[in-house]
Amino acid sequence: MERYRHYGTSYTSSPGAAHVEEIHSEEEEEEVEEVMYTEEEVEEVMYTEEEVEPLLEDETQPLLQETEGKTVPVESKNGKRTEGGGGGDAGGGPKYSVFTWFVVLGLLGVWSSVAVVYFDIVDYDTVIARAKEFRMNFSEVLQGKLMAYDTDGDGDFDVEDAKVLLGLKEAKRLHVGDTPEKQTAAVPLPPPAEDSFVPDDPRESINPYGDEANTIDTTGVLLAERQTEESTVESAEYLTSSKLTQEAEPVVDAERQPEAAADVDPQSETPKQTEAEGTSEKQAEDKLTEKAKKKKPKLLNKFDKTIKAEIDAAEKLRKKGKPDEALKAFERLVQQYPQSPRARYGKAQAEDDMAEKLRSNDMLQRAINTYREAAELPDVTSDLLRATLKRRAERQQFLGRMRGSLATLERLVQLFPEDIGLKNDLGVAHLLLGDNNGAKKVYEEVLGVAPDNGFAKVHYGFILKSENKIAESIPYLKEGLESGEPGTDDGRFYFHLGDALQRVGDNSAYDWYELGHKRGHFASLWQRSLYNVNGLKAQPWWTAKETGYTDLVKVLERSWKTIRDEALAVLDQNTGHFVPEEENLREKGDWGQYTLWQQGRKVGNACQGVPKTCALLERFPEATGCKRGQIKFSVMQPGTHVWPHTGPTNCRLRMHLGLVIPKRGCKIRCTNETREWEEGKILIFDDSFEHEVWQDADSYRLIFIVDVWHPELTQHQRQTLSPI
């Protein structure tokens, strides 16, 4: 079973804490500025002296008109009693002397405000009353918006709160269960959320490794492989132009809307039509109910809501693609509020993002540990508990901690026993460990309570097929694919359903292969490999000149007798070097193999039995360094038939050197062309295309198989592609 590929070398962390805090403060200031008025905006509201005087003149004008001709005693703020409202035209003569006005003019500037108030030129009572009313209204609006940033629990947002948010002051410590008003009892664990709960999508963050997925090979083992990009596969007769298999999150088909009924005459409406309308209404109601279930997950407990502003500020950094700054922010939160589940979950997510940024296994292990810590805290909400443990299981699988992932999923299933999706994930975890029996029990349990669950069906069908229960596997694979449920529209299941149908002689296999091709899982009807590099030349048969490996071909053909003699010596010793084919590709017969290189490495001390052959090959890294191929001897006894099948990747070409070939009865078909081997001659084909072998001769057939890199792969690709 191929293991998940790990991250590369871990690197040191980036910018220091001081820089992080500075940026973090700037982010928080931005949030405050969204709700606070700027100084310019406040100045626009405040009255200037020039604006106040005409305003008061307008308001006092009616009063002056009403009292015109009368002398009304008025007491000013300085205690003096005057008659009239001032002005030289009023009865009683001028109110102020020339000297008084001279003093007023002389005191303008620094003393202008004192003079204006002393001589009661402006009625400041009215102005101050209006200013107070404005301030109160402004304060109410502003406090309503800033209550979320109340960090000291005094019920409003003030300077002290701003200092806390800017990192200039330590916040008042609250304990779990505290509110700004009073301390309450701890909140018990809420009941499990709806089955349709979907945790935070990790793809919102920068995630270059979000495409890894589980894959099943032809031997009945669930593998892990990251898929490459899309492109067009070019060839002459076998030109294809489709997406190759993309192993990412399954695409959920859009919900099928009931077709709108045609307008009919109400008098001609039949009971059947009425029933159809009722069914349509019921479907609409069910759809609304389903949408209602898909509510936003509740990740904050009662205490976390009191620090929501700080959590949101740190989360904002993470979602902006600044995992290092987000990690610092969440670490401060965890230090201040060690019992906060949401803060610790955010820390785990930030560590998760940093692991991807640094390609660090150590950092990823830190994230896995922090996810566990978050799940073990008291008062964690059920939605957060589910999201935390589910993500932990995924990252454990990615890091190759299959047994740890299995234990995490088992705990999840215990906590949420009604969640079918978690049970399906548990079944996949068993398959990743090669525990088909454990997976089979899980899917049997799922199908017992949800017999129409498509995800469980395709996986259960796969397990049956791996047990060589070909006919029994077909309905499960077929019905699972037809369900269209998430996780079923996958090239692996089209591959295995078509293979099963071929083995029972059902030509509808090619209909499923064609459908898989149209859905973008296969390069073409014939080329059905699942691990591909896109854009490589695709044709079933090749010549030595087309490959560019003419030197290798010449050496093999010139030395074929030496290679044959060494192989026969090993074969005659009957020491167990030739082992039976283990990929379940034979319909009948006996097929043995003796492997020298696999995945770009020598196999044990296999070369000791054939030293001259290995010495010849050492000169050709395109063969010995091919991490997606093998170099081996293959012996096939009479009466053997190999089912039509395809190799796993388009990254290699396969050379067959004939060593011992009976005169008739041995042949190989690749796509729709059949050829025969010749002793001392090389056949070259692309085994990602469908091929089939018959051995109907009277004696055994012995060939030497050498896999080489596809000639169009770059040196960088050859070095970085994962082994198969």
User: What is the strand tally?
Assistant: 17
Low-confidence stretches are 1-49, 52-92, 173-277
Question: Could you give the distance between the termini?
Answer: 10 Å
Our Rg estimate from Cα atoms comes to 40 Å
Shape, principal axes of CA atoms: elongated
Number of helices: 27
For the sheet with most strands, the description reads: 8 strands, antiparallel
Overall pLDDT: 75
Oligomer: single chain
Could you please describe the fold and organization of this structure?
This protein has about 725 residues and is α+β, with helices and mostly antiparallel strands. About 45% of the residues lie in helices and about 10% in strands. The chain is built from 27 helices and 17 strands. The strands form four sheets. Strands 5, 6, 8, 9, 10, 12, 15 and 17 form an eight-stranded antiparallel sheet that branches. A five-stranded antiparallel sheet has the order 7-11-16-13-14. Strand 3 (about 210-215) and strand 4 form a beta hairpin. The longest helix has 23 residues, at about 125-145. The N and C termini lie close together (about 10 Å).
Structural topology:
Blueprint: H1 17-33, H2 39-45, H3 49-66, E1 73-75, E2 81-83, H4 98-107, H5 112-118, H6 124-146, H7 159-165, E3 212-216, E4 222-226, H8 271-293, H9 302-306, H10 308-319, H11 323-336, H12 341-358, H13 361-376, H14 382-398, H15 402-415, H16 420-432, H17 436-449, H18 454-466, H19 470-483, H20 491-503, H21 509-518, E5 541-542, H22 544-547, H23 550-558, H24 560-573, E6 579-580, E7 586-588, E8 591-598, E9 601-602, H25 611-617, H26 621-624, E10 630-636, E11 640-645, E12 652-660, E13 666-670, E14 673-675, E15 682-685, E16 691-695, E17 701-709, H27 715-720
Antiparallel strand pairs: 1-2, 3-4, 5-15, 6-8, 7-11, 8-9, 8-10, 10-17, 11-16, 12-15, 12-17, 13-14, 13-16
Helix pairs in contact: 1-11, 10-11, 10-12, 11-12, 12-13, 13-14, 14-15, 15-16, 16-17, 17-18, 18-19, 18-20, 19-20, 20-21
